[in-house]
Amino acid sequence: MKSMLKLAIAAALAGAAFTAPQAQADAAFLARPDVQRYIDEQVATGQFNRPELEAVFANVELKPNIIRILDKPSTSRPWYQFRASTVSDKVIADGVAFWQANADALARAEQLYQVPPEVVVAILGVETHYGRNTGSFRLADSLSTIGFDYPRRAEYFRGELTQFLLLAKEEGKDPLTLKGSYAGAMGLPQFMPSSYRKWAVDFDGNGHRDIWNNPHDAIGSVAHYFSRFGWKHGDDVVVPASVVPGPQIDKLLADKFNLHYTVGELRQMGIAPQAPLADNVPAVLFSLETSPGVTEYWLGLNNFYSITRYNRSTLYAKAVQEIADQLRQRYYASLAQKLPEPASAAQ
What we know:
The protein is about 55% helix and about 10% strand. The chain is of the alpha+beta class. The chain is globular, with a radius of gyration of 24 Å.
């Protein structure tokens, strides 16, 4: 078995369609029955050949620290803490600069996908601070680690691993060189591989969907994503609401990611929007702890729902909305400051 495995690894490294960098082959990982079954399954689909997959898995380095991160209990921070670390002046200032540097691409994305520039920029700011923090894990390592060594999420991450290997083939990239987050998210917008294959676009027409290094492709991809998840141009994201706390309100708050009720139905449950809204508008109630012991209530509308399709967190969606609002104000204020002074009226 060992001699046959060495021959298989050598053949894989010599003849693979994916070009693997020189590295010490991890024979133990490649020899694992679950890895071999996965390779068999993928070869049977006709999408891969065995040498190219063995070339990848012979060079995968498992990262046990990822499992330790995933096993840490999740603690949800209150809004006032989350906002302080997310909606920062640095994010806003750098976002304005990013908008200025990519104004043409953002305007074209708005025209094509009907998603405003400030929303696209806000997403890129929250996700990676405009490409500064895209992740340092080799994606082949992180996706393999979770897909094969974390049973609770193995099925999902093996699916993402397959999507990743397919996108590497489609883009002509070596899968052992592409990097991202510890959980497999990629590039400026932190798309998972399946999202990349569905929604990423070649926005500058150069033949590649490069969300790692090309801001225009990242911009077009985020706008395309939101257009496919129902963003409505010109609509609000949230409006404040007043409520009478009680068991019914608690039940509604637990259903914070779904538009199951209209504003009219919510009014009948004692929820009063603090801005004009038609009764037939779908909405969802959510709450934010704005300071210790102080809670505000909000109605999330269709565009709020769209943001939660990107990240299922009400805190995330509210932060994106606030950053987008501040970006829009500062960007257009910066344009006004650049306008020439009007000529004095003739005497």
